[in-house]
Amino acid sequence: MFKHFAVYILDTETTGLDHKSNDIIELSIYRCSDDAIKTWKIKPEHTNNINDEALRINKHKLEDLLHQTEYGKANYLKKQDVMFDVENWFMEDNSLPKDRILVGQNVIFDAQFLQEMWKESKETFPFGDRPFMIDVRQIALFIDLCKEERQEFYNLNTLLKKFNIKNAKAHTAEADTLATKELFYQQIKCLR
After folding, report:
1. In sequence order, what are the residues at sequence separation of 6 or more whose Cβ sits closer than 8 angstroms to the Cβ of residue 136?
2. Which three-class secondary structure state does DSSP give residue 32?
3. How far apart are CA 48 and CA 105, in angstroms?
4. Is 123:142 a contact under the CB 8 Å cutoff?
5. For the chain, how far is it from start to end, CA to CA, in angstroms?
6. pTM surpassing 0.90?
7. pLDDT of 1 strictly over 80
8. How far apart are CA 138 and CA 142, in angstroms?
9. What is the mean pLDDT of residues 147-153?
10. Class level of CATH domain 6-191
11. Residue 26 in contact with residue 12, Cβ under 8 Å?
């Protein structure tokens, strides 16, 4: 579908809204070139800054995040292990970081958390030091501007409804990534 770029769609779930003091606890990435998707659960490092409201929304359990349960120990991996796996998975596309595009809903939020996660190993960040980013929210705004329309909200749920896209497990990284992928494809179709 995309000839000149390697396009990746992603979503994160985090322990709060501050990329400096909170952590990614779930990361899902969809690779457009081969329809591959991978999802990782990550043990947070800033355990004193876990926001109860964030966990209420994304439904991750504190005891799992802290490895106090067998499920938590088995499923929430160390950040370094996840980073290594992500980097290896990205190498499969045979693309340079400068040729990769990061797509998401409010993608700057996710990108800031990813860059913070890779801050000590910037040279291996899969999107390079100045990543290309496309925000489906901004595309929706642009389409509405061209059509002289306006939505009351430009959140993912509202945009999915506009395009009749279902998201049965909202606020889980994998479901939100797949829903964002469908939205992005519909927006491209609309623009073409």
Report:
1. 103, 104, 105, 107, 156, 159, 180, 183, 184, 187
2. coil
3. 27
4. no
5. 13
6. yes
7. no
8. 6
9. 94
10. alpha beta
11. yes
- Yes or no: say if 135 and 105 are a contact pair by the CB < 8 Å rule: yes
CA dihedral of residues 175, 172, 76, 39 (deg, nearest 10): 20
d(CA 180, CA 148): 23
% of the chain exceeding 90 in pLDDT = 94
Coil vs helix vs strand at 156: helix
Q: Record the tokens describing residue 134, joined without a space.
A: 């496309």
Helix pair 173-191, 136-147: axis angle to 10 deg: 30
Placement of tokens 């999915």 in the chain = 160
pLDDT tier, 168 (very low <50, low <70, confident <90, very high otherwise): confident
Of residues 16, 190, 183, the one with CA closest to residue 175: 183
- Mean pLDDT, residues 87-109: 96
Residues 48 and 27: beta-carbon distance below 8 Å? no
Q: What is the pLDDT of residues 25-36, one digit of tens each?
A: 999 999 999 999
Helix (H, G, I), strand (E, B) or coil at 24: strand
Domain boundaries, the chain: 6-191
CA gap 121, 115 in Å, rounded: 9
In angstroms and rounded to an integer, the radius of gyration of the C-alpha atoms of the chain is 17
Q: What is the separation of C-alpha 130 from the centre of its chain, rounded to a whole number of angstroms? A: 17
